[in-house]
Design brief:
The longest helix has 28 residues. A three-stranded mixed sheet has the order 1-3-2. It starts with a strand and ends with a helix. The protein is mostly helical and 202 residues long. The protein has one domain. A hairpin with a 5-residue loop joins strand 2 and strand 3.
Length: 202
């Protein structure tokens, strides 16, 4: 089934937040903390669990719980508060899949209400941690740690799903992404052509 893309305004958008400082102040310290806490904790537990305990089941359950808490918190809370984005997928009665993206309304002055510091923290955590889990996946595969492979795949899937959702939320649908890439390549080609013509004329 084909995916439909729908953009809607973020519910309960806080208009008064736009009056505060926008550059370096972290307005949501608790959200920023938990944005990194669950995902970093899952990585730390994965690295240290064999040193701390010999129970694989306890380690696996702890890591999956941390990854699940991270998935829910990032998808529903921290993305909304820190960068004004939220996404989800819903299936209607006909079985058709709909991607729904929420974005915080732009203030009357046309400025964004999220701070640069929070945005950096959000995107850095969102991109870096799935890359670490991919490294863990290759490490577990090549070292033949088959029992850990399932845990690592869960990390890649849960954190990769959030990354994919927010990238689509940020840049739009695949069609928009394709048109952006086409426009960029077209502009680069035009610039090179004009530069060559200028050099030839001079």
């Amino acid at each position: 089934s084909s995916d439909d893309i729908e953009d809607v305004s973020l519910f309960d958008a806080d208009d008064d937040v736009s009056r505060r400082s926008k550059k370096s102040k972290i307005r949501h310290p608790v959200a920023s903390f938990f944005h990194l806490f669950f995902r970093v904790s899952a990585i730390v537990v994965y690295l240290l669990c064999e040193l701390l305990t010999s129970s694989f089941i306890a380690c696996m359950v702890t890591i999956i719980l941390l990854l699940s808490c991270d998935f829910w918190a990032v998808k529903n809370v921290t993305g909304r508060l820190m960068v004004g984005l939220r996404w989800w997928n819903q299936v209607d009665d006909d079985g058709k899949s709909h991607w729904v993206f929420e974005a915080r309304k732009v203030s009357a002055q046309g400025s964004k209400t999220s701070s640069e510091a929070e945005s950096r923290i959000f995107w850095l955590g969102l991109i870096t941690c799935p890359m670490i889990w991919v490294i863990f996946a290759f490490s577990a595969l090549f070292s033949f740690k088959v029992k850990w492979l399932a845990v690592v795949v869960m990390g890649v899937v849960l954190q990769g799903a959030n990354l994919y959702g927010y990238i689509r939320c940020k840049v739009g649908s695949r069609k928009n992404l394709t048109s952006m890439a086409t426009n960029y390549l077209g502009k680069q080609f035009l610039r090179q052509t004009v530069a060559k013509e200028d050099q030839t004329a001079s």
